[in-house]
Design brief:
Length: about 140
């Protein structure tokens, strides 16, 4: 068994992140699904779809739910879903986070969540080449 991954994001952000990660690694070692949230979607219907996806993904080890923005509609849907299921939610999903998850598919839910958080945080770099050039 392994932890399932559900991305709940605005528009097609989750789909594009997942496709990019799959292309980068050449495979997807974790059962992963995406729930796209459009501006005119009904949040109650999306919660129902999310619950269905969670049931599909949870093989007994739980689901790591990744959302793009805390406090947004996708983030609020994630928070609502987490109340009724064994889920850990991380807001601020990015490609380094997803790649880190895919490199540690055998970890327990809380361990995978920490690897994901660290991968996402450490993947953010200030590349201020303009300032560096001025200082020379």
């Amino acid at each position: 068994m392994s932890v399932g991954i559900l991305l709940i994001t605005h528009n097609r952000i989750g789909f594009e992140l997942l496709e990019t990660a799959r292309q980068t690694l050449g495979f997807c070692p974790v059962q992963t699904r995406v729930l796209d949230v459009a501006q005119d979607d009904d949040p109650d219907r999306l919660c129902e779809q999310g619950a269905d996806l969670i049931r599909l993904l949870d093989g007994g080890d739980g689901v790591l739910l990744l959302t793009d923005c805390y406090g947004s509609t996708p983030g609020n849907i994630a928070a609502q879903l987490a109340r009724n299921h064994r889920i850990t939610v991380i807001a601020g999903v990015n490609l380094p986070m997803l790649l880190r998850i895919f490199n540690y598919p055998g970890l327990k839910l809380w361990e995978l969540a920490e690897k994901a958080r660290a991968g996402g945080k450490n993947g953010i770099m200030l590349m201020d080449t303009y300032r560096q050039a001025r200082e020379r």
